[in-house]
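Next up, a specimen:

>
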Amino acid sequence: MSEDDYCLIDATRPPRADGPPYAECVLCREPTEYTESYKGITLCPACEWQEAQRTACSG
């Protein structure tokens, strides 16, 4: 069995940017790895990791 068999959280991510301008993190306002033109929630690597830890499936 894989993680996908247990987790019901949609883990889709926006496309990564090749260079600036970068979108701001919605939590801390730091630059992310995603394009500024992306419409949706973007998180910097640190906040993305913290969010993943917070919402990780347990069991």
